[in-house]
């Protein structure tokens, strides 16, 4: 008998600004570009991809592509998304 699975979208579970900031903070702390991109995508979907794309100054399609598993967003896209999400990046000595 085959196991039936249901689709999972983490965006459904980060529904507060605090939980979104915690996810993004954890992702940036690791320095793993794939994790950072995925976390940005999760938070953008939780906030509404269309509005985030508009606020970031990119098309919805370009944002989906940049934040996909194969995506590698340009710095300008990254900064636009961070601003659109209303979060700040900080730098501390390693």
Instruction: Please indicate the count of domains.
Output: 1
- Rg from alpha-carbon coordinates: 14 Å
Output the number of helix runs: 5
Reported for the largest beta sheet, the result is: none
Q: Kindly state the number of beta strands.
A: 0
Structural class: mainly alpha
Query: What overall geometry do the principal axes of the alpha carbons give?
Result: globular
Distance between the termini: 51 Å
Taking pLDDT < 50 over at least 5 consecutive residues as the criterion, the unreliable ranges are none
Structure description:
There is one protein chain. This protein is mainly α and 94 residues long. The chain has one domain. It has 5 helices and no strands. It has helices at 17-30, 33-47, 49-56, 60-66, 75-85. Helix 1 packs antiparallel against helix 2, helix 3 (49-56) packs across helix 4 (60-66) and helix 3 (49-56) crosses helix 5. The chain is globular, with a radius of gyration of 14 Å. The model has no long low-confidence stretch (mean pLDDT 93).
